[in-house]
Give the backbone structure.
Amino acid sequence: MPETIKWGIIGCGDVTEVKSGPAFSKVPNSELVAVMRRDGAKAADYAQRHGVPKWYDQADDLLNDPEVNAIYVATPPDSHEEYTLKALRLGKPVYVEKPMARNAAECEEMVRVSKETGTPLFVAYYRRALPYFLKVKELVEQGVIGDIRMVHVTVYKSPSGEETKPNAQPSWRVQPMVSGGGHFHDLASHQFDFLEFLLGPIRKAEGVARNQAGLYPADDAVVAAFAFESGVVGSGSWCFTAPKNQQKEETYLLGSKGKITFSFFEMGKITVETESGTEVLTIPAPNHIQQPMIETVVAAIRGEGTCASTGETGARSSMLLEIITQG
């Protein structure tokens, strides 16, 4: 592998502005050299603002750029499989946004081609590398709250203005043909991925998904029950049409000696309750939230380390979402 990993981004939209894009040139032995967006003017603007040497308005042009030796796919999920397969077959490692694809079958094909070509595939489940979530994992592994008995996830969010205003035009995230589902697929994908990282594989899952408010085609209410191979049991409830005064997002782990409460999306604080009292830990997020994960991806590509979020682990999250929403 070349000394410097030279990245090309397919789909330089909002998620790449701060969360990920700048990090590719801040990580040692890594550089962002090209970006692509179908709207050429927006691609050129992104390149100018971020100091990126080249921009394209056709994905194939970026994929075939001989200087680009790794690809970050940051488009909506309906094109993840297409661009990932093309890159892998060109021998270019891929870091793909989450959810990994629209469904489990697309994920399986991505993993298959990665194995067939011997080209690495990574998924942007960056919580596996963030200090905040690694602290939760450390607390569990140190036995601070004893043996883990159960986990519960709560997400109650109000609909956005773009979903409720007259002549509303909800985003692609709630169009199943594009995203694979709705807000549940977008947010719970992170949650199930991290829970398996934390507690091991989920052996059984079931759920019920409904569209109650009719604001868009995707489900807006989901409940789930799941069981880990370790014996830990879990449950969750997600509602994306809750009133503003009932918005809530938290996850707790109940152990034999206490409880850990944390947030997947607000982050910041971790509350640890044991018989000896309550401790609140504050762990801020990095400026570019994907940078710790990108560091591990670069290290893995260079053969100098490992990355905890691979095609195999990313595919499991998509499989679980599919099983839960079939109910």
